[in-house]
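Checked the freezer inventory, then went back to the computational side. Two predictions to log before the end of the day. The first one is the construct we discussed on Monday; recording sequence and tokens without edits.
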Amino acid sequence: MDNRVPIGVSVWPRPGVANDVANMIELVALARSTGLRSVWFGQRMDLDSLVLAGVVAQAVGEIGVGTSVVPINPRHPVVVASQAQTVQATSGGRFRLGLGLGSPALESAAFGIHEDRPVARLREYLTALRSLIEEGGADLAGERVHARPPLPTTVHGGANVPLLVAALGPQALRVSGELADGVIPNLAGPRTLSSHIVPRFERARPAWPIRAAQIVAGVTAVVTDRPEEVRARAAESMAFYESVPSYRAVLNREGVEYAADLALIGDEEYVTRGLRRYIDAGATELLITQTDLGGPDDQLRTWRLLAELSA
């Protein structure tokens, strides 16, 4: 594949294992052995993505680790800055912090919270987080975020944490362009990337950014000889996206009805062609998700292809 870009994969424990964390370490070691460049950990309500990133980075060397993504509403930026710097120091500089606006329905049910001005919170959150990590403190008393720690927030060896945001909407993209280092949009097809995400993010970037822009496109992909069977699993696992307004807007823009219509499921040639479209659309990196939909053998087959295609 011409114009190669780095490719990473999201990793989650396999069902029925005795120890989820031990299994994650094994899977990441396997990913590294295939030649993959990075692994990403989602945030659910069992395993913690930031803790997991630190543990895995300590156990498995020479592979990048990242979160995709940590919701900003339940965690204060002082706490996240401390966690992120700790992971960065543990990893020796291989960590990237992916943040997200979160799911209102899930957060209301789990925490009893509802953020009615998510973009305003995102702006204040990123402002505080950058200051906490890069300047060792913050002095922010905003409408949505208060961050005035009375003690230093510097972790030696933990600086230089790239901040990425799972931004899809115009306002979130503008704030991310101004204050973050990149975006990590999931389920944003090539049309959405080229016409919506990349131009809006780039327009908002400062004239002299601290780091090069990172556009990490999340794509569901599986290399398999059983495409219909795996696609049926994808349709079931991805159906919830179809009722989320921001994702529904993406599906409409892509001209598809179902989230699984954007999944790349087929042989090596089919998946390679599909991934090339994301690169042509402006992605600087690919994050391949749900590679386990077809089982361990298909997952390893997928990882091997991705390693061959990766820069």
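The second is the one RB wanted added to the comparison set:
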Amino acid sequence: MDGNIEEAKSKSILVTGGAGYIGSHTTLQLLLGGYRVAVIDNLDNSCEEAIQRVAQLAGKYGGNLTFHQADLRDKEALEKVFSVEKFDAVIHFAGLKAVGESVAKPLLYYNNNIVGTLNLLEVMIAHDCKKLVFSSSATVYGQPKEVPCTEDFPLCAVNPYGRTKLFIEEICCDAQRADPEWKIMLLRYFNPVGAHPSGIIGEDPRGIPNNLMPFVQQVAVGRRPELTVFGTDYKTKDGTGVRDYIHVMDLSDGHIAALSKLFETNDIGCEVYNLGSGRGTSVLEMVAAFEKASGKKIPLKFVDRRPGDSETVYASTEKAEKELNWKAQYGIEKMCRDQWNWSEKNPWGYRSPETTD
């Protein structure tokens, strides 16, 4: 690790959306790896407190972190960030990510996610920074006909959020084909859960959570009365949907591995990798693991399936294991223990009850 830190010291990384859930954990791992990091975030679904806590956790490396509050759709603000520092690569997390909201407000999603990305790519070109790690999603597989999902599966997003990820992947590949100097990694995440083991940073969604585990944690700390389980008649071991859950720390390390490969490989082109555990876990199995970790009973309300939900989705991770030398280390017990540790210490996330919507 020390050799890698020496090598990383000369590298400066821009992290868009770095105050968010996955962005903050990855920013911390970058700092601990010796990189200098600048975060740009509009704080639309995050807060600056996360960045302050990352700097605290980074200890002696905390001084290598700078923060810019700006929106990627504001090209002038983006230009300003690039003009004060030269970046060796960009990790692009920034984007809206609620599936239901994207169906209700598709234009907001296309504007935020795609226009923001186009601005970013154009400013990167202007400043001769052509190494990018993009935060994509397993939603690009739509409802896969078989599992595990491999990177060469046909792509078919079934909602506007997923389509923004799919379109951005296509934009990145087109940009790289037109200009071979680009080196791009497209990372398709499955279902990130958990928190930093310290319990100091974690997931803190605004409003009603869209994903299973933040909802479970809010029930456990008394913020919500019960967990709604959508669908109990799937052809799975217990009738509930099966997903691939990955610890956010494993996911963060996957970004470091992708970044290392970008710096070490000359002809990377535009490559895609699944980041998941490679295992399927049902909703009820996940709830049981959280109950065990927290000692709390989670009241359940069973309702019909949600339109658009898939029965079983999990990743093939062979390509990332072979080419990035990366593999998820942690199981669902560790994910749930860390998630509970975060939520017990921060029942209202980064905010107080009065400021939580």
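For RB: The radius of gyration is 19 Å. The chain has a mean pLDDT of 95. Let me know if you want it refolded.
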